[in-house]
Amino acid sequence: MTFLVRSPAVFDNDEIIQKYIKSDKAIIVRGDGLSQSDVQHAWDEAGKTGTVDVVLFSVGMCCALPCYGFLPCNVGGTPKFGLSQGFYITPPNLVTQCFLNTMCTMPADLRGPNSQLRFIVVTSTGLTKSSHASLPFPIRFLYYFIRQPHKDKIGTERIAFHVSGKEWNNAEAAEPGEEIMGLDWANREGLPPFGSFKGFLLVRPLLLTDGVCLGDNEGAKAPYRVSEEGIYSWTVSRKDVGHFISDAILAKWDDYKNKVVNIGY
């Protein structure tokens, strides 16, 4: 496992990750996802231990998830609040630009429609009109105050749709715009062309909590719901999102490859 983090100290008190670090099974690369050279360095370091077969991109999400492969995270951006715009971060396209850097520096041997790379991207529910409409009213009201970070998440999905060959539905979510995407982003040097990579899974969690992992409990009823349609739900724990991702990677990749799914209780 290779982690790209701005501050390696984020794992100092994490007993689980420390075990992997001490056994050299986890490699910590210090850098910033907003720096293309730092992301390139992380790819290079990850490749030294063998072929990278899984990428988990969860910028903007707390690192309570178990991680496999190469993870750019902890890239910063302290939220601020304004009466007219709700919560916002600077730069407003932090997540989108980190994702562009990740895609533009992807090694040549991992690109193309026949690549075996499994690339998981964590965004959020409520990004499209239909998924937003499926949520409880209090959640929809809350999401009004985080519309700028959500627009950034939409930018990330826009790139994934482009690279995987999915047509963008402007009726569901408007184009994020130049403020988020940058000028002529689709022709940015290094970005895989339209439809050239089919190994994405986009995961849209409900409001994230620090609750326990219900997925580890055996039982006939699934502890959380996963659907390509909108889910009427309130929350899901980070650990259960991690449980789902682990299960999708290890056992159900053919079921979820190149799909967009919502997850919640």
Quick rundown:
With 265 residues, the protein is α/β, with parallel strands linked by helices.
Q: Catalogue the unreliable spans.
A: 61-76
- CATH architecture call: 3-Layer(aba) Sandwich
Q: What is the count of β-strands?
A: 12
Give a quick account of the main beta sheet: strands, pairing sense, barrel closure: 5 strands, mixed
Tell me the strand percentage band.
15-25%
Number of domains: 1
The mean pLDDT is 88
User: What is the assigned CATH homologous superfamily?
Assistant: NAD(P)-binding Rossmann-like Domain
* N/C terminus separation: 29 Å
What layout of secondary structure does this protein have?
Elements: E1 2-5, H1 15-22, E2 27-30, H2 36-47, E3 54-57, E4 70-72, E5 80-82, E6 86-88, H3 94-104, E7 118-122, H4 129-133, H5 137-144, H6 147-164, H7 178-181, E8 200-205, E9 207-209, E10 225-227, E11 235-237, H8 238-250, H9 253-256, E12 259-264
Parallel strand pairs: 1-2, 1-4, 3-7, 7-8, 8-12, 9-11
Antiparallel strand pairs: 5-6, 10-12
Tell me about this structure.
- The structure is a single chain.
- With 265 residues, the chain is an alpha/beta fold.
- The chain has a single domain, classed as Rossmann fold (3-Layer(aba) Sandwich), CATH 3.40.50.
- Helices cover 31% and strands 18% of the residues.
- It has 9 helices and 12 strands.
- Strand 5 and strand 6 form a beta hairpin.
- The longest helix has 18 residues, at 147-164.
- The radius of gyration is 18 Å and the shape is globular.
